[in-house]
Structure formats: structure tokens, C-alpha cells
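Weekly sync, protein design subgroup
Attendees: M.S., D.O., the rotation student, P.L. (late)

Item 1: inverse folding check
M.S. brought a backbone from last month's batch and wanted to see whether the design step gives back something sensible before we order anything. D.O. pointed out we never logged the input encoding, so this time it goes straight into the notes. C-alpha cells as presented (385 positions):
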């Protein structure tokens, strides 16, 4: 199938037919793992398409082409981790630039901005970006970038991406959205006017807890070229074996997310109905703050929810009693993952700051996998009893 044909087909079909699924050399139905660092140059006068594998590799190109098509972009790059992709995107900025980021951004991004990029003269202001006016109010003459994530983690706050993209355009800022939680199946920020999408492909895109990877996607030619230059200059590429695993995982993205999201919705509603749960955070609950905004900009609610069991003691007891979910960091896999933000993702955050963000001692995060949701509910029920 040609790339032009690919634009008219639906997402489920596109996952399998973007024009990057068949090996162009031998027609293999899975793109081979080009496990090579360099390429023999037949023609001494003219350099070949591939000369060195940091700069290009057919396994990586196939994955990148597929991801660009899925996000509605034109230029995708595969990195060795989500943080490598985010770091390369932040390198678009220079000393003296000011950035605005949402205040509940992924912990690793927060750390990179406040402990690495700050040393290089790039200053970041963190704002409650659920209110577009607060983004606007934080803009300075030297503001160059806007870094957002929606839904956020773990309290599932929602940012209006169209409004944010509009503000960025008015002020000449590069807007960057971490789309890890939604994936292009459920949310396509480029279509809403965002400049760069970043992913931890370690999560839903890979989907099987067996690969660490990151992606950037843009549809702007200039930004695409700058990011490619930065990737080649700094070197955080994804290896061919991991490119293969990611393309393999992507084929089932829709069916996995459909099943996981349905499970998450069922569990969120079940938790909501219980007297002994202080709060449930899930964008699919109609009274969840930002529900209407999320519904307007996304095609579903995803597989991640958080809930507050009331106390740290109770959270620990539940975590030690459940038998089906693995108790771990990470999310977005075929198996259900239960995490405890207090000691995992947000352990480094001072307690008052953590509590201010609603990350209480009783808060647990659940990334729902492909188990039967009724078995997960029964397991949570016995754990809560
Ligand atoms: C995991 C994660 C990252 C970091 O990705 P790695 O692949 O672990 O480097 C970034 N953003 C979000 C939202 C994540 O969940």
C-alpha cells in the first residue's frame, strides 16, 4: 500500500498498512532486524542511502515511517528511551530561553528540566496548565517553548491542547506534548495544532513490558530536520532489535487499548461505587475535572486510573495482598501494573509539594492490562477487605 492510500483508511487498518510493513528488499512480512553498524559502499563516487547506523537503519526507518503515519505527522524519530526523545526535543532550545511546562509533568522530564537544562541556561516555569490563562500569564519576552502532558500522571489532569496550541502559535513558542498515556490511537496532538509529539514507547506502543524506547513526531519540515540533526549529533538512537519489537507491538495497539480501556472504565466505576475509596481519578468519569475537554480532544479514556484508599497503611496492605497485578513502576502493558506514586514515581518530591498535587499517601495507580476485568475486580475486592 502507498502512503497516499494510507490517509483514507481507519486507524485499525492503518496500524497494519502504512506502507512500512513489508521489507522492500525481499517482501518479508515483518521488517528484518538490520543488525549492522555500517554499510558497504558500492559506488565510490555516490554515497548510498545508508552509510552508518547512528544516522540511519532500515529497521528504524520502517518504524519511524509507521509512527509518523499513525500520529498524522511526517517526521518521526525512534530513540533509546522516552527520556532520550524528550531530551532531544528540549535541545531545540538554547541558553537564555525560557520554557513553560505543566506542573504535573512526568517526573523524569521535571528532573531533566530542573537538574540538567537549568544548568545550561534554560529556565522553566511550571504552571497549572489546565487553565490556559495561567499559561498565557507565564509568558516572558524570552519564552520559547511549552511542554505539556495530558492526561497527567497520577491525578489525571486534563489540558486543552487546542487552546494551548493557539497560545503557542500567537507567541511563537514550540509546543511539545507527551502523548504516552493516550497513544495516537486515542489522541493526535499534531492535528490539534501542537508542533512536536513525544512518547515513551516503553508503555502502550511497545505494550509488552519488554522494550525501552522513545519517539518524537512532527509534521513541520524544519522541526523534523532539526530533531534529526539533534538525534544524530547526540546519538540516542533505538537499536534495530528494539525497533522490531516496537513494530511488532504496534500491530495490536488498537485491540490492546480497546480491551484495557474497557477494563479500566469498569474498574473505575466499581471503585467509585465503594464507600471505602476516598477518590477515583479517571477521565471517563463524567464528573472528572476536564472530562468534557478530554472527550472533545481524544477518542477514548485510556487504561490508566488512580484511586485513593484513604491512608498509606491501607495502600500498602492492598499492594501486598493483590495477586494479579504486578506491583511495579511503568504502565501500558498487557499485564496489569499497580504502582504506588508515593514511593515510586514521586518519591523524590517533598511531602508538602506531593500532597499539594493530590498525591496523597493513600493514592495508588492502576494501569489495566488484558486480564478479565472481573478477575481484577475480585482480586482488588479481596485486597481491600
Ligand atoms: C515512562 C514515561 C516517560 C519516560 O520514558 P522512558 O521510556 O522510561 O525513558 C516519559 N513520559 C511519560 C508520560 C512516561 O510515562
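Designed sequence read out in the meeting:
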Amino acid at each position: 500500500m502507498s502512503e497516499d492510500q494510507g490517509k483514507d483508511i481507519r486507524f485499525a487498518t492503518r496500524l497494519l498498512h502504512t506502507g512500512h510493513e513489508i521489507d522492500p528488499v525481499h517482501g518479508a512480512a515483518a521488517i528484518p532486524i538490520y543488525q549492522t553498524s555500517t554499510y558497504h559502499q558500492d559506488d565510490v563516487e555516490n554515497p548510498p542511502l545508508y552509510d552508518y547506523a547512528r544516522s540511519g537503519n532500515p529497521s528504524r526507518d520502517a518504524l519511524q515511517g509507521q509512527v509518523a503515519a499513525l500520529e498524522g505527522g511526517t517526521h518521526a524519530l525512534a530513540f533509546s528511551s522516552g527520556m532520550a526523545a524528550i531530551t532531544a526535543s528540549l535541545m531545540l532550545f538554547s541558553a537564555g530561553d525560557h520554557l513553560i511546562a505543566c506542573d504535573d509533568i512526568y517526573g523524569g522530564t521535571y528532573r531533566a528540566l530542573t537538574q540538567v537544562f537549568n544548568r545550561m541556561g534554560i529556565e522553566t516555569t511550571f504552571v497549572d496548565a489546565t487553565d490556559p490563562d495561567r499559561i498565557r500569564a507565564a509568558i516572558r519576552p524570552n519564552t520559547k517553548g511549552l511542554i505539556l502532558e495530558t492526561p497527567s500522571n497520577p491525578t489525571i489532569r486534563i489540558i486543552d491542547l487546542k487552546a494551548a496550541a493557539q497560545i503557542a502559535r500567537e507567541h511563537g513558542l514550540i509546543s511539545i506534548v507527551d502523548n504516552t498515556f493516550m497513544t495516537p490511537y486515542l489522541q493526535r496532538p499534531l492535528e490539534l495544532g501542537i508542533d512536536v509529539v513525544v512518547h515513551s514507547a516503553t508503555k502502550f506502543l511497545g505494550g509488552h513490558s519488554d522494550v525501552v524506547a522513545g519517539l518524537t513526531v512532527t509534521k513541520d519540515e524544519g522541526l523534523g530536520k532539526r530533531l534529526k540533526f539533534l538525534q544524530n549529533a547526540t546519538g540516542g538512537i533505538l537499536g534495530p532489535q528494539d525497533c522490531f519489537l516496537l513494530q511488532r507491538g504496534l500491530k495490536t495497539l488498537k485491540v490492546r487499548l480497546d480491551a484495557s480501556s474497557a477494563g479500566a472504565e469498569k474498574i473505575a466505576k466499581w471503585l467509585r461505587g465503594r464507600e471505602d475509596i476516598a477518590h477515583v481519578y479517571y477521565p471517563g468519569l463524567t464528573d472528572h475535572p476536564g472530562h468534557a475537554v478530554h472527550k472533545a480532544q481524544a477518542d477514548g479514556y485510556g487504561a490508566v486510573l488512580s484511586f485513593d484508599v484513604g491512608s498509606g497503611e491501607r495502600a500498602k496492605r492492598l499492594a501486598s495482598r493483590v495477586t494479579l497485578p504486578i506491583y511495579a513502576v511503568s504502565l501500558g502493558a498487557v499485564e496489569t501494573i499497580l504502582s504506588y506514586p508515593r514511593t515510586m514515581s514521586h518519591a523524590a518530591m517533598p511531602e508538602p509539594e506531593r500532597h499539594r498535587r493530590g498525591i496523597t499517601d493513600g493514592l495508588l495507580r492502576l494501569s489495566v492490562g488484558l486480564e478479565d476485568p472481573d478477575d481484577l475486580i475480585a482480586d482488588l475486592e479481596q485486597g481491600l477487605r
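Discussion: The chain has 15 helices and twelve strands. The mean pLDDT is 96.
Action: P.L. to compare against the previous round before Friday.
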